[in-house]
Structures are given as structure tokens and as C-alpha cells.
Amino acid sequence: MHAPRTVATGRTASPSTARRINDRIALQLLQSEGPLTASRLKSLTGLSRPTVADLVERLQEAGLIAVVGESGVERRGPNARLYGIVADRAHLVGLDLRTHRATVAVADLLGRTRAERTVRISPGTPEKRAVAATRKALDAALRTAGAPGPHTLAVGAPGLVDPATGRLGGTDRLPAWHAGLIAALRARAAPVLLENEVNLAAIAEQRDGAARDRDTFVLLWLGHGTGAAVILDGRLRRGASGGAGEIGFLPVPGTAALPSAHGCDGGFHSLAGSAAIVRLAAEHGITADGAGRNGDASPDDGAPPAEALVRAALADPAGGVFLDVLAAHIALGAAAVSAVLDPGCVVLGGEIGRAGGTELADRVGAQLARLSPLATEVRAGTAGGRGVLRGAVLAAMDAAQEELFACGG
Q1: Which CATH architecture has domain 89-200+389-402?
Q2: Contacts with 115 (C-beta within 8 Å, 6 or more apart), sequence order
Q3: pLDDT at residue 297 above 60?
Q4: Is 214:344 a contact under the CB 8 Å cutoff?
């Protein structure tokens, strides 16, 4: 997607404001298009040659861009210089928190990963020890990447994140060390962005994955738990309390009870969560290695039973009936989303969405077409198991660029 081509003039803004806007547009172009010559910047922005020359000089002095090569094999001189963003001008940190694991990635200003570390947290580990282990992994990744600071850090975690306060809610159902780690990170000087994990996965699908061509879609997260992320008109929508997408609580037919304020049993989670899929597979005689564990086991301990069972069904000629019933269950949630939001596209993510791939997505799409008059394409997510981590890096990149690209004056 190209950056905006609108330029500021003195007729609509002060000279300093116009310079900041034009600088930002140029930087966005260098990010999206790669290194460019001054002539190409002039063509893409519509700015005059002297204005482009001034902004190039200004951005070089600010340490945001540098000459990275020349254009063409025969041309030489100032007009052939290629300017690119100085990727090491800032470093980004993405952190993906799970029940028994934390993964950290350190990237440069263009979102390219420079180092990564994973630490596993055994059940019953004291909070202080879990926090210390995660911080140690973070510090090791920063050293490997040569990123002493400053850096912008984005954290993806289960639970509700209040859009007004940035605080993590629903902590009674989450590991205590999550909140302890976030508090410890926020005690540092660097800013910390906290976001729901499914929302970050949706950002990854929007920028790098299955929804690159969509500015409106819903990511339906199918894994140990169920959830959804809503992207409308290119923007992530969180809801008044951060609860947009808590689809596990959605009342649906086919369950023996109704969800309540204290739990989602009886809601969509009871049809499409991992435990429900394990039970459904048993009813249809689907087995797989390692699938005998409790369906509520953490997906961090190897392949989740539900994911293994879906893969086994895809490989078994007799697995079609199981997949059709599972698709019908998933389609109930997708139909509710479609009726309320009309997103035009639903992306299946999480462990189950990844395991089911295009075949499961096609089956859900066929079931959804029977339930809803609204045309809604169903796609398999492509961000995969690293979607949350990638989304965290992208969120950190946006925040860092927002601050750095507001240069000029």
C-alpha cells in the first residue's frame, strides 16, 4: 500500500507544520517503497525540487535517512543517490505472553527481526522467578541485536486491555506473572504498549498476512480459547472497555447452557474451543498422536490436542464428516459476526485456523453461505503461530515511527 500523496502548503498550514507533514510523507514513502532518489520522491509527492532537496537535507541531519546506494549502473552523481531510512535509528521489541511461555523479538525501525528469545515458564513457578526469567530473555535479545536503547516495546497478552488506561483486565483468569512482568517493564524508562493478543494477530494478518487487500475484516481466533479481532475501515476497533471480539461469550445454539458474566461455558467457546474439538473428534473416531491429553491443556506444551486432531482429520479420507461438523460450529460464530458487522471477510486464525488451513476455511465458508445472506469470504490465516509476535513488532514500529517521523520544524 502506498503512503499518502497529499502534501501541505503554506496556504493551509504554517511553514513548520507543512515541513513536518512533508517530511512524514517522504519517510512513509521510503518505508513502503524502499530506497528512492530525490527525483523519485519529487514524482511521488508532487513537491517541488527545492522542497524535496530541503527535506532530504533535513532528514539526513536528523539521522533518519542516509545515502544507501545509487540508481542505475551507468548514472553517477547527486541525482543518482538512493536515500533510505536508517533502520538502526531505533529498535523495537515485541513480546508474546502465553500461559507457560514468553517469546521476545527485537527488530529495527523497518520491522526486520534482529534477535529472538523464548523462555518457558513451568506451572507453579513463583511470580518473581517467572518475571526475572522473562526479563533475562529480553535483555539477552537486546544484547544480541546490539540495541541498548532507547526502544519501544509492545506486549501481546490474553485478557482485556482497557483502551482508556492501557491496563490488563480479567487477570483473575490469567497467570499472575503476566501482570507482574508488565508492571516491571513499565517501571523502565522505555514506553510499553499493551494489546490483546488476538488484536495483534489481526494486525499481522492485515499487514503481512491473509488480509493485506482488505481494510475491513474480522479475525476469528480458534485455539485453546476463542476470540475475535475487528478491523473496520483500516482501524482496529477495541470497544468501550476493550471487549470487542469476546466471541467466546456469544450465546449460540447447540450447547447445554448459557454463558454468564463469570465464564463462557455454554457460549461459542463451548462449540469451537479446543476442549470442544477434542470431544467432537472422539465422537467421530478421530485420533492422533498426543491427542489423548486433556483438551484444556496449554497449547504451549507441544502441539495442542485439538490442532493435532484437525490435522489428522485432514489426512484421513474418513475425516470429512468431522470437519463438516466442526465447520458448522465455527460458522455459527462467523454468522453472528457477519450479521452485526458485515465485514465481508473472516480470517480463521489461532492454532485451529492454522491447522485447518484452506480446506477448513472453505468448509466454513460453505456453511456460512447457508446461514447468512451477506456475502462473506472466509480465508485461512497465513500469519501462523508467530502472528501475535509479529503483530507486537508492527505495533511497536508504528509507535516508534509516529514519534520519530514527527520531526522537522
Answers
A1: 2-Layer Sandwich (3.30)
A2: 105, 106, 141, 142, 144, 145, 147
A3: no
A4: yes
